[in-house]
């Protein structure tokens, strides 16, 4: 099966994030972009007709409604989601950074339009005991350039909850040790769920679309007690479909035996997952509104 080189593993361990260049081939990338357009058109149509659903969020900051987030891609394009998860790079990430028992928890898409549409303030995702890995994997459908609202990280902050209010009130976007991480369309950017990160306003025209995939060992879900065993078992069934769809040479040794054959066909499983909705562990944000001359909007954008 494809291997993650040692320097990538070391970089992730030391910093809490790592980029995999060209993790998605051009054919799949094109189909994911087509899906993004279809979802955006559907959400815009429903918004225009006053249909309210929690699966998507439309931002209206500029006066022109723009899609910001579309959740649960599995519900709309299950086969395409399975194909994405079963790619060689994704299988290598699951094996090397998450381990046996890895399951997908969520697959969503974020749309980033230029300011004044939303930025992403400093935060940490899903605090947990850290006994098991917990990954947030970004699949880039468009380029994310330096100084244009790409991800900002503070390396090695993933081990504990940080004083986000104090840090951002003092430093704004420029936290001590901060780095910007660019990405190109087709790249995959993996981050520890708890790393302190943000994304300032986008300046250039056009949309940036990123698919976010949460991965965690099923033992970690059970240990956290945040979701039920039944919810976790449905994710194991989801992963069983991924293993079945993957090229056998990309499947780690022992994984087919561990996940076994799916007990329901994919569309029946999706319906079961829809019916068994359980809330995620909330992210950690600043405890109060941050007052800073260059945060969350730079002074030159005001």
Which helices and strands, and how do they pair?
Layout: H1 6-15, E1 17-20, H2 26-48, E2 56-59, E3 66-70, H3 73-76, H4 78-85, H5 88-98, E4 102-112, E5 120-123, E6 135-140, E7 151-154, H6 164-171, E8 179-181, E9 188-192, E10 196-199, E11 208-217, H7 218-224, H8 229-245, H9 255-259, H10 266-275
Antiparallel strand pairs: 1-9, 2-3, 3-4, 4-11, 5-10, 6-9, 6-11, 7-8, 7-10
Helix pairs in contact: 8-10
GO molecular function, one term: 2-oxoglutarate-dependent dioxygenase activity
Keywords: Dioxygenase, Oxidoreductase
Cofactor: Fe(2+)
Brief rundown of the structure:
The protein has 10 helices and 11 strands. By secondary structure, the chain is an alpha+beta fold. Strand 2 and strand 3 form a beta hairpin.
Instruction: Encode the helix/strand succession as letters.
Output: HEHEEHHHEEEEHEEEEHHHH
Number of helical stretches of at least 4 residues: 10
CATH superfamily: q2cbj1_9rhob like domain
Tally of strands: 11
Name of the top-level CATH class: Mainly Beta
In the CATH scheme, what's the topology name?
Jelly Rolls
Distance between the termini: 50 Å
Global structural class: alpha+beta
Low-confidence stretches: none
State the shape: globular
Number of domains: 1
Strand proportion: 15-25%
GO molecular function: 2-oxoglutarate-dependent dioxygenase activity; iron ion binding
Pfam families: PhyH
Organism: Pseudoalteromonas caenipelagi
Keywords: Dioxygenase, Oxidoreductase
